[in-house]
Every structure is written in structure tokens, then in C-alpha cells.
Amino acid sequence: MGLNIKSIMERLPHRYPMLLIDRVIEIIPQHKITAIKNVSTNDPFMAVGQHMPVTLIVEAMAQSAALFSFADEGTESRPEQGKAVYYFLGIDDASFLIPVVPGDQLRIEVQAVRLSRAICKYRGQAFVEDKLVAEATILCAIRNSPE
Question: Is the pTM of this model over 0.70?
Fold first, then answer.
């Protein structure tokens, strides 16, 4: 299963310039998600420097993890998509190995380490071509929306 930008925008509250996922290539429920971010000179964060800030690479991993969390339809233990809020709680073991520059296509792979009804742990890796450029462990919470 893949997602285009319209489907991504239906699932995430983020909008340009903070929406950092352009396409989802694959979602394997309970296992992993693979997403794409095309890095461009037109991205506003490129005005700050010559490479994508590492904090935004981690944010792209977190957005991928959020999409993954709500892709597991049929799991009653999770809040329904649209009725839940996704919170980024923390990051561990982050490594940033190679700068990501305009023209790069960032492939983000996020694997489930621990999934539960409220707290989830993921291992994210970002690649340009086949080179690992960043990796991190991400902790997130899923809560019912207050609405």
C-alpha cells in the first residue's frame, strides 16, 4: 500500500512548509513504512544553510511513524484515524552521517520496535540512494482526541 500527497494530507495535520513527506512507497502493518521526501532548493529551510537541518530529518521520521501508526486498520486497540492525536515524546541514539542537500531524494524507513495502545517506539533510518544518512530511535504517544 502506498500513499500520494493528497492521502498524506488527509492523515497528517502538517502543511507546507512543515509537511516533510511527499509520498509513501510502502506500508507493512505492524512492521514498517517507507516514505519519500524530495529535497529542493525551494524548501524554505534551505535558506538557512546548504543542507537539510538534521532536526527536520528526525521530524520526517516522526511524520512517517505517525502515518504508519494510523495505517493499522482493524486493530481495535488503537484510536481511529482522525480521532487520535499523535505526540512526539523523544529521540534516542541519533546519528547524522552525511548531509542531505538539494536534489537528494530522502528515503525514510521506519520500523516498529514496540507497538502498544498508547506508547510506540520506532527505529528510523534515512537514506539517499543506498547510503545511510541518518538514524534514530523515536518514542511517540497516541491519545484520543479531546474533541
Answer: yes
